[in-house]
Amino acid sequence: DPTILWFRRDLRLSDQTALIAAAAEGPVIPVFILDDETPKHRAMGGASRWWLHHSLASLDADLRDKGSRLILRRGKSDEVLAALAAETGAGRVHCIRHYEPWWRNAERAVGKRLDLVCHDGNYLAPPGSVTTGAGEPYKIFTPFWRALRERMPPAPPANRPREIAAPSRWPESDRLEDWRLLPTRPNWARGFAEWEPGETGARKRVDAFLRHAARYDEERNMPAIEGSSRLSPHLHFGEVSPAYVWHRVANAGGSVDVFLAEIGWRDYAQNVILQFPDYGAKNGRERYDRLPWRDFRSSAVRDEFDAWTKGRTGYPIVDAGMRQLWATGWMHNRVRMIAASFLIKHLLIDWREGDRWFWDTLVDADYASNAVNWQWVAGTGIDANMWSRIMAPLGQSEKFDAAGYIRHWVPELAGVSDVAIHDPDAHRCRPRAYPRKIIAHKAARERALEAGRAI
Ligand code: FAD
């Protein structure tokens, strides 16, 4: 009997634990199911769908090199898998385990109908397995990381299986084009051309990063420099395993601990949603439910939100980031923090609205990482960050030397000097095409602090 390999966001052939197990059992039917029913309102956003299209095309090509192929089906995962098993006589399903609450439900549902075997492999350590001496899961990053670090390095990554046997007859497959994952009109994805989704592209990114990994520490906070790895969408879609990234980077030499800790943040976020599956919808600390957010139904608030999404707030660093996000599906981490803080504290708009916008526009949109970071910036989370910590966007912009970055993403400001570009209003040199600040920093700060007193 053939075995089904259920791909989700683990779209690779190397170090793919479910594939290794399936291939060892005989003929394999690799399947990817486009399932918008199981995640409901957490169905993939637009940028993720763009990525998915290309990643699936790449995975299919890699499978074909091995004499196999990718079967595409659409619908509710447990129903589709049950039908596929009945159709092909498959006896077992292998998959890598995922921790989004809807995937955990789906795994339970599949497990009731079929012989489902879940494997670890998308995290440095299985989420939930890093605990305190008393067996409790960690809530705060630093002690979590200390405990995880002690278990590192992860096992060396496995190569792709030498052989993936084909079944005697292939079941039918949808055509990828028919899924319409790419934008039609308008084509907002032209700026996404810098990405190469898929395992080959992911490995190229790792190679490229090794050339400057030793400078990560100093350069990662400078938006004008490509100091970080840009591996986030590749890691999210599982095109490389974190163990692979770990071993490549750790063996490259130099001080890479700060980078490895960031990979640890990725694990930490999964650890949080495993404890708090609603983390994308609920404040980590309940007393923050009393925050007097501005009313999102009011048109004035909607207009300000709209200005934020379009990069027209009058705060150059925020606007540069939001435009980079729209154009490329990615935003520099430091700028994500500044832009998120601006929405939450300066505009006093509920972090969940920002989370939702990022969900739709990021190519690395990840339920856990997105929620954990939004709640961290807001100060509503289970970590120790506080509401009263309000980022000063203009000061941050200067401190991290964002002039070149702003000039690139906000062309209206291209002619403004390095000194004035962070705050053209204050230097009386704001070009007419660039909007006035939608709110003054000081007034916004006071309003946010006042809001915090409600708690
Ligand atoms: P690098 O600096 O090269 O880091 C390497 C890898 O570590 C990243 O690829 C990523 O997998 C992981 N990582 C780094 N920082 C974090 C972090 N703070 N939290 C979790 N993992 C991290 N990251 C996502 O992957 N998906 C999201 O949806 C997401 N939403 C975010 C929302 C906000 C408001 C903020 C402030 C941050 C968010 N991040 C998210 C975290 C971070 O901004 C990105 O992971 C990072 O910018 C990706 O760029 P990179 O691959 O060059 O990172």
TrEMBL record:
Family assignment from sequence similarity: Belongs to the DNA photolyase family.
Amino-acid biosynthesis recorded as keyword: no
Keyword Cytoplasm set for record: no
Cofactor: (6R)-5,10-methylene-5,6,7,8-tetrahydrofolate; FAD
Domain Photolyase/cryptochrome alpha/beta per the UniProt entry, residue ranges: 1-124
Domain of life of the native organism: Bacteria
GO function terms (MF aspect): deoxyribodipyrimidine photo-lyase activity; DNA binding; FAD binding
Binding site for FAD: 216, 228-232, 259, 364-366
Record's protein name: Deoxyribodipyrimidine photo-lyase
Keywords from the UniProt entry: Chromophore, FAD, Flavoprotein, Lyase
InterPro entries named among the record's database cross-references: Crypto/Photolyase_FAD-like_sf, Crypto/Photolyase_N_sf, Cryptochr/Photolyase_FAD-bd, Cryptochrome/DNA_photolyase_1, DNA_photolyase_1_CS_C, DNA_photolyase_N, Rossmann-like_a/b/a_fold
GO BP terms in the entry: nucleobase-containing compound metabolic process; response to light stimulus; response to stress
